[in-house]
Inverse folding.
């Protein structure tokens, strides 16, 4: 049981690679949901040990990141009738190669984050890898919805780093961030639908009217 | 008690807006609501300036001299923009704001004000971050009120760039948290962080500050993270542009200044943070000055001018000595001046049907009140004496010379001179020049309502007044706020 957080983190690394290699938007949203569930399991040992805060956190993360957020994105995806692939700028297979390099570099960098002995370099490595992979993914995607997915994965990466640094942020902040993410998912979902109404597509690489 | 009222009033005002079914009712309600918020903010700020910081909720919500100063600015600019919004939307086509969508505008308007107030009231840097992130969420749909392609594109850029950027601010906050020796629920309180700053591990504190500077700097519009700013400012309806430029950028900067004393103490060398600010500030000034040269879109010109002025504020903070005082003074001047500039530009553009500077000439004959206001605002923005912006820039340069930052002063003057050279001609031709081609046939000069005279007159007088004389009370307030940043 004590190794549950580490198992979850390694599964998240696998999710990152799946994100880089898949082209189907619906699968991306599913993988985002899986990551949310995995993240919600990290405080589970503390919750089973009797911490009420940790229990609320498990339930809240599971509800927001595992269920509601993916559901909102899925609704936005269904409402736009477009080809359901993400059409990245650099193809899936080729973006796996930098993915491997990022993972290796993140684990090396994780050993060197100057945060004292309490810092767990494995968690730091996974957090950094998730963060940088998501940034790469955001830059590499054309569709609005896949950029949003990249943004949410970026947020996951930062929360993983927080777990490594101090076993997570203070409880109030974690809850406030969850609430904020819920709002963000609603706004992003609504925006994508309006974008589709106005442009009849959501390909952000074709929006280049504003310059200078 | 009063802090709760300040924090909760905008949110309840937003809820009330949802019940309004007429656009005229919404436009009156945003004026009334921001007036109430201003009264609340001023009374709380008066208490803070007289008797020191107040706090509630176990110190998680607090108001000190620095946040009180910014709170007053937010409340004043919100009220001015709300008054202007009535004027602006009465000349706008029904499709941009009709009875069916007006309640959304009212709700988002107050939510936007409320989230900025939250940034200033939360003494907990984690909750401050959450509020800053929600300013983005609240204001995105305000940019694309018109539902046309350019404004949707601008709103999308704003939403995705600022959301991703601000995430790095969270990461920076986490690093500061990791550097701090304390843990627990109150560990992220600003006052706790200040008390324990001397025991912080300097290395993560440095990493944290860089991430905070990049993260919140995205929201401030510091170059090279400024790319969303010209688009959002130019495409948003003008009352919203005024709020963005007048106070949203300040709120982002406020977040950075909160971390300056903590990290300076942790690193043990106040000049380290200053050098970072100086670098970003000068770079922003130079980038903005290049884009101002030859800019043809009036609202984009004003947007790049915001990048420049945020750069000036950063440089002021970075100079050290009296620079912090001057930077705060400059913040006030910029908020007043940029509100005036956007108000006038917005109405001029509406009357003339174009935003091309070359086609907008002879503004003083065609739209006398707004045209004159625009001339005053542009002259002030590029740093003409005797306007207050000239005074605060002068104080920043003097602080730089006193502190021996010769290279920084030289670059500062270079960028300021470029802006002056680039924007003086448009400023004059906008007011007096002969029009090349008219997009609408000339009719007699546009008559303006009393509101227009009052807005332009009062703001212009404030700009000149603050330029020749800083009231003693304002000086005390600015010194109190500067002392917070200096960590005393």
């Amino acid at each position: 049981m004590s190794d549950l957080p580490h198992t979850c983190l390694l599964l998240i690394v696998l999710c990152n690679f799946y994100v880089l290699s898949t082209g189907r938007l619906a699968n991306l949203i599913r993988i985002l949901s899986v990551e949310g569930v995995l993240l919600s399991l990290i405080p589970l040992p503390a919750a089973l040990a009797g911490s009420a805060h940790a229990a609320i956190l498990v339930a809240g993360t599971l509800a927001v990141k595992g269920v509601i957020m993916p559901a909102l994105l899925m609704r936005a995806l269904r409402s736009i009738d477009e080809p359901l692939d993400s059409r990245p700028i650099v193809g899936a297979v080729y973006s796996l190669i930098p993915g491997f390099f990022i993972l290796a570099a993140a684990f090396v960098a994780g050993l060197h984050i100057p945060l004292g002995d309490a810092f767990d370099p494995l968690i730091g490595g996974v957090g950094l890898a998730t963060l940088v992979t998501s940034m790469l993914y955001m830059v590499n995607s054309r569709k609005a919805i896949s950029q949003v997915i990249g943004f949410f994965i970026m947020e996951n990466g930062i929360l993983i780093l927080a777990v490594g640094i101090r076993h997570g942020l203070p409880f109030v902040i974690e809850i406030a961030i969850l609430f904020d993410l819920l709002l963000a998912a609603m706004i992003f979902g609504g925006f994508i639908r309006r974008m589709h109404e106005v442009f009849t597509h959501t390909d952000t690489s074709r929006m280049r009217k504003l310059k200078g | 008690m009063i802090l709760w009222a300040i924090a909760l009033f905008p949110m309840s005002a937003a809820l009330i807006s949802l019940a309004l079914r007429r656009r005229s009712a919404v436009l009156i309600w945003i004026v009334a609501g921001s007036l109430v918020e201003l009264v609340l903010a001023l009374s709380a700020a008066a208490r803070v300036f007289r008797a020191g910081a107040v706090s509630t909720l176990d110190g998680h919500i607090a108001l000190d001299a620095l946040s009180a100063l910014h709170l007053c600015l937010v409340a004043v600019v919100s009220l001015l923009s709300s008054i202007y919004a009535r004027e602006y939307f009465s000349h706008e086509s029904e499709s941009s704001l009709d009875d069916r969508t007006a309640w959304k505008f009212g709700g988002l308007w107050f939510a936007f004000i409320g989230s900025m107030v939250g940034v200033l009231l939360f003494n907990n840097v984690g909750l401050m971050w959450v509020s800053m992130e929600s300013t983005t969420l609240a204001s995105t749909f305000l940019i694309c009120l018109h539902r046309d392609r350019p404004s949707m594109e601008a709103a999308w850029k704003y939403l995705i760039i600022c959301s991703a950027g601000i995430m790095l601010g969270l990461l920076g906050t986490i690093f500061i948290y990791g550097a701090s020796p304390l843990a627990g629920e109150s560990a992220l309180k600003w006052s706790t962080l200040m008390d324990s700053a001397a025991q912080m591990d300097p290395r993560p504190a440095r990493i944290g500050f860089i991430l905070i500077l990049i993260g919140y700097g995205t929201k401030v519009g510091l170059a090279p993270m400024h790319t969303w700013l010209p688009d959002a400012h130019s495409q948003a309806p003008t009352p919203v542009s005024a709020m963005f430029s007048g106070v949203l950028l300040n709120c982002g900067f406020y977040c950075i200044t909160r971390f300056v004393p903590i990290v300076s103490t942790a690193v043990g060398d106040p000049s380290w943070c200053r050098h970072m600010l100086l670098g970003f500030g000068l770079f922003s000034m130079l980038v903005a000055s290049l884009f101002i040269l030859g800019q043809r879109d009036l609202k984009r010109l004003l947007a790049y001018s915001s990048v420049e002025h945020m750069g000036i504020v950063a440089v002021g903070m970075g100079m050290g000595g009296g620079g912090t005082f001057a930077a705060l003074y400059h913040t006030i001047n910029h908020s007043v001046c940029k509100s005036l500039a956007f108000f006038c530009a917005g109405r001029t553009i509406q009357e003339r049907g174009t935003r091309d500077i070359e086609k907008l000439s002879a503004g003083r004959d065609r739209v006398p009140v707004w045209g004159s206001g625009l001339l005053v605002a542009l002259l002030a923005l590029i740093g003409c004496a005797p306007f207050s912006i000239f005074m605060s820039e002068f104080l920043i340069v003097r602080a730089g010379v006193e502190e021996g930052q010769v290279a920084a002063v030289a670059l500062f003057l270079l960028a300021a001179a470029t802006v002056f050279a680039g924007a003086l001609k448009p400023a004059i031709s906008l007011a007096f020049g002969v029009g090349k081609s008219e997009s609408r046939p000339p009719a007699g000069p546009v008559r303006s309502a009393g509101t227009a005279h009052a807005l332009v007159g009062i703001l212009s007088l404030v700009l000149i007044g603050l330029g020749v004389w800083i009231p003693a009370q304002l000086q005390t307030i600015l010194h109190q706020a500067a002392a917070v940043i200096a960590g005393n």
